[in-house]
Amino acid sequence: MRLITHLRHVDLAVPDYAKQLDFYTHTWGLRPEHTDSGLTFLAAEGSPEQYVVRLREAADKRIDLIAFGAATPADVDTLAQRIAAAGVRLVSEPGTLQTPGGGYGFRFFDNEGRTVEISADVAVRRHRAIEEGESIPVRLSHVVINSADPEGTLAFYSQHLSFALSDTLMHPRMGEMMWFLRVNAWHHSMAIARGPHPSLHHASFELRGLDEYMRGTGRVLRAGVEKIWGPGRHLAGNNTFSYFLDPSGNTMEYTTELEQIDEDTWHPHLYDFSNPEVSDQWGTANAMNEFVARRSFNDPDKGLFQAPPV
């Protein structure tokens, strides 16, 4: 039985904190809601989550945390007991959270050493409907991670957290390369990409609609940010994509219209991405090539099996 309800936030440690903060607020369109010394919690205007990205100043670049929600504290306790009994290493036992919005949660290391948090009863942030033409993120859509052992990582999230497989991308020469996982009716809240090392592949932000997505893509381009890939429309998930590099070299995506599926009748597809229409149904994006792939690998994550200090 699945007890996780949704994706909450992704927390990043970065050496160039001031540059990153400027990018996420002035260029990307997030709002700094809570700030401490070398620590900022960034909210999306349309999201009830207290924050969708947390930036922390650190010597080493890493994913600090990927956070998911559960419906009740009892569900948090059940998940903690379940994964501890399976031999998964807990970082913290269930308890009161000290982050904005409070709540009740716990943290653990996944199979490759990323820190994951599951929480319930976090206070809802005052948010608003994004207006027509507003090209800022509505919510955090999904997070994609690179894995040196993607089959093991897929098994971990499927077995311990009941993530469901929506679709898989494969290549005739390279085999299966990406797995899209869901925790609710959205086609994916997380995906796992085969990579040379564990790292962040990208984080994706949902915009209000096609017009706002294109306006946002154009605004970031005009700001001189390096575009990696897009604009286009994927087949898996049927969502649009424009990928950019943040100042630390993390890939960030603007998207919209991610598919919502009927979980009772859905059957996963195996898509061959050597077919150009799988990567981009529109044919408007630059070709998926070695350059795009290499940028997506990112730097090796330096925080594996080391819990973040906050």
From TrEMBL:
* One Pfam family per UniProt: Glyoxalase
Q: Which InterPro entries match?
A: Glyas_Bleomycin-R_OHBP_Dase, Glyas_Fos-R_dOase_dom, MMCE/EMCE_epimerase, VOC_core
VOC domain mapped to chain residues: 6-121, 139-257
Keywords, alphabetical: Metal-binding
Concerning PANTHER family, the annotation shows: METHYLMALONYL-COA EPIMERASE, METHYLMALONYL-COA EPIMERASE, MITOCHONDRIAL
For this entry, the protein name equals: Oxidoreductase
Native organism is: Paractinoplanes deccanensis
